[in-house]
Amino acid sequence: MQISYPDHLLISVQVLKMLDPLTTICFILSVVRTNLKEAAEMKKTFLSVPFLSVPFLSVFVFMMICGLSYAAGKASYVDIPPAEAKALIEKTPDIIIIDVSPAYAKGHLPKAVHYYIGDGSLDKAIPKLDKEKTYLVYCHVDRVSIQGAKKLIDAGFKKVYRLKGSYKAWVDAGYPIEK
User: Fold this and answer.
1) What is the side-by-side order of every strand in the sheet holding 78-80?
2) Neighbouring-strand partners of residue 99
3) Angle at which helices 21-41 and 54-73 cross, to 10°
4) How does pLDDT run across 54-86, given as a tens digit for each residue?
5) Do 32 and 87 sit in the same domain of this protein?
6) pLDDT tens digits for range 113-152
7) CB neighbours (10 Å) of residue 163?
8) Which one of 73, 94, 121 terminates a domain?
9) What angle (nearest 5°) sits at the alpha carbon of residue 79, between those of residues 73 and 81?
10) Residue that finishes a domain, picked among 44, 73, 102
11) Is position 91 within any domain?
12) Which range marks the domain in which residue 58 is found?
């Protein structure tokens, strides 16, 4: 299930997802307090402005906390550039590198396994994969590697990384490949 937010809230939600719950609550309360001060400065009483009523603010704060808790608990893959991917591979000896492209034979990252997303190979492999391991997903096209990483996350995998810029970025960085 994908949560969608209005564009103007997206940045705020992404920032709040990085904060711990206590910091998030403090941030929300400070925003509410700032709005109350602004309303008082405009010589409006808090209770005379319908959308700033106590019940509304209580519901708003409750919904924000619930929404942020859900978003924070929702697993997601992590985009990493080639240098970070190389470092991750070096420090994680049991990492599983998955190439989801149809172009595996033309070149792939060392030790990569091929689960082409287009023929259902990835879907067939997912039940057999260890959800506790670390995975690096890539393709020759970003869109397809995003789909592959999402499939792993949706199946309950927790440590999923996606090579940002995909195979081309890896090659452009001068890192080794296999054919």
Assistant:
1) 78-80, 159-163, 134-138, 96-99, 113-114
2) 114, 138
3) 150
4) 555 555 555 555 454 444 455 789 999 999 999
5) no
6) 999 999 999 999 999 999 999 999 999 988 999 999 999 9
7) 27
8) 73
9) 150
10) 73
11) yes
12) 7-73
